[in-house]
Amino acid sequence: MSDHYCVLGNPVEHSKSPLIHQRFGEQTGQEIVYTAELAPLDGFVATWRAFCEGGGRGANVTVPFKEQAFALCDTLSERARRAGAVNTLINGQNGRVYGDNTDGVGLLRDLDAHHIPLKGVRILVLGAGGAVRGVLAPLLERGPREVVIINRTGAKAAALARDFADLGAVVGGGYDALEGPFDLVINGTSASLAGELPPLPEALFTPGGFAYDMMYAAEPTVFLRWAQDHGATPVDGLGMLVEQAAEAFFLWRRVRPDTGPVRALLRRALT
Ligand code: ATR
Predict the structure, then answer these.
(1) Taking burial as the number of CB atoms within 10 A of a residue's CB, which of 69, 90, 95, 253 is the most buried?
(2) How far is residue 9's CA from residue 173's CA, in Å, rounded to a whole number?
(3) What superfamily in CATH does domain 104-236 come from?
(4) Which residues make Cβ contacts (< 8 Å) with residue 266, sequence separation at least 6?
C-alpha cells in the first residue's frame, strides 16, 4: 500500500503541494499518495491525529497552523526551534511526532538558483510575521553585511532582530527607520495578498539589486512591479514553494527530487 502524506491548512483547496509531491513521487519512483486536508480552524490537532490513526506518515502544514504544529511536536529540529514554527511533520515510532521547518532552506535554494549573492551584502526584509521568522536564521548564516527588518508594527521587527542578534548583524524597526540602498529586498509581508504596497523610499535598491517576493501569483505582485520600475531584478516565491517541498520530501523519503521540471510545470500551470 502507498504511504499517505498530506498538506493541512485552512483554506487548502488551492494548495499546489499535492501536484508538487505527486510529481516528486513519480519522478523518484516512490509510491506515495498526497492529499490536501482541510482542518477546521479550531481542530488542527484533531485532524492531524485522525490522519495518523488512518495510517498517515507525514504532513506539510500551511496557514494558519504552523505555530500549532510547532506546539504539538515531541521532537523539533534546530531550525524549527529557531523559527518557532513547523511546516513539516513526521508521524514517527510509537506515535511520536517530529517537526521540522523547511521554509528557510527553500528560500535559500531558490536565491541560489537565481544566483543572488548573500555573503557581504545588505539585505532588507519586510514584515515580521511567521514567514519572516522562518527564514532569518538561514539568511544570517550566509554572512550578509547586515539584515534590516522593517515592519508596519515596528516593535515586532525590533523584537525579532533581538531574537536573532546572536547569529549576525541584524536590526529592526518601523518604515520611518527605512534607509536604502539594499542589494536584496525580501517581501515577507502579506501585503501582496491584498494588492497593497508597503511605503517604500525611491532609492531602495543598489544598482543590480534584487527584489524577492515570498508570494507568487499568475501576474507579478504589486511589490515586484514596483521593484522592477525602480531598477531591481524581480523574483517571485514559486521556486521557494517547490524547494521547501523538496526538502520535506527528502525528510520523509530520503530521496532528493529534481526540482527543475516541477518548477517549470508549476510556472506553466500558473499562466
Ligand atoms: P505570515 O505568517 O504569513 O508572516 P502574519 O504573521 O499575519 O503572516 O504576518 C503578516 C506580516 O505582513 C506582518 O508583518 C504584517 O505587519 P504587522 O505586524 O504590522 O501587522 C505585514 N503586513 C500585512 N499587511 C501589510 C501592509 N498592507 N503593509 C505593510 N505590512 C503589512
Answers:
(1) 69
(2) 31
(3) NAD(P)-binding Rossmann-like Domain (3.40.50.720)
(4) 16, 19, 20, 238, 241, 242
Residue (of 22, 24, 23) closest to 33 by Cα position? 22
Provide the pLDDT for residue 270. 85
* 123 vs 109: CA distance, rounded Å: 17
Tell how far the Cα of 229 is from the centroid of ligand 1, in angstroms: 23
ipTM score of complex: 0.96
CATH 3.40.50.10860 matches 3-101+239-270:
yes
Q: Which of 57, 66, 82, 263 is catalytic?
A: 66
**Which of 8, 52, 59, 65 minimizes the C-alpha distance to 248?**
59
The grid coordinates listed for 243 are: 524547494
Buried b or exposed e, range 180-195, using 16+ CB within 10 angstroms: bebbbbbbbbebbeee
Q: Which residues belong to CATH 3.40.50.720 in the chain?
A: 104-236
- At 134, the pLDDT band (50, 70, 90 cuts) reads very high
Q: How confident is the model at residue 147 (pLDDT cuts 50, 70, 90)?
A: very high
> Ligand 1 centre from 214 Cα, in Å?
12
Contact 46, 67 (CB under 8 A): no
DSSP state of 47: H
